């Protein structure tokens, strides 16, 4: 399975009413540092109805640029329709970020996840990582 296909599969796993970050999708697709490649793949999404790319936001919870999903306000409307609160074109990641786990990673060898028996810790959200780094800086 190609990286782009893994990105689309990871995005399809984001639950209704939740968002994920580009970094989170990159990790789930098997390339943790490929946030820009995720953005490129989402921009070229061949199935916008089946792959809800509008659920992907940046590490601060901000909506994407005007070029994506028909425009920033279209993304905002889609998210609000699902009950995600958007204030000043930003989502509160503490409330609305999908708490994915290792089980949600896309297995490149087959369609679907890493397997039924795979379990792991909840992956940290961008908010959690930011809070950790700020705490480290204060030490």
Describe the fold and architecture.
This protein is mostly helical and 139 residues long. The chain has a single domain (3-138), classed as Arc Repressor Mutant, subunit A (Orthogonal Bundle), CATH 1.10.10. The protein contains 6 helices and 4 strands. It has a two-stranded parallel ribbon with strand order 1-2. A two-stranded antiparallel sheet has the order 3-4. The protein is globular and about 40 Å long.
Q: Could you give the count of β-strands?
A: 4
**Continuous helix count:** 6
| Cα shape | globular
Helicity level: 25-40%
Query: The CATH topology is what?
Result: Arc Repressor Mutant, subunit A
Structural class: mainly alpha
CATH superfamily: Winged helix-like DNA-binding domain superfamily/Winged helix DNA-binding domain
Give the end-to-end Cα distance, rounded to a whole number of Å.
Answer: 44 Å
Strand order of the largest sheet: 1-2
Largest sheet: 2 strands, parallel
Query: Which ranges are low-confidence, i.e. pLDDT below 50, for 5 or more consecutive residues?
Result: 111-122
Query: Secondary-structure element sequence?
Result: HEHHEHEEHH
Please give the structural blueprint.
Layout: H1 3-12, E1 20-21, H2 22-28, H3 35-43, E2 56-57, H4 72-81, E3 86-87, E4 90-91, H5 93-96, H6 126-138
Helix pairs in contact: 2-3
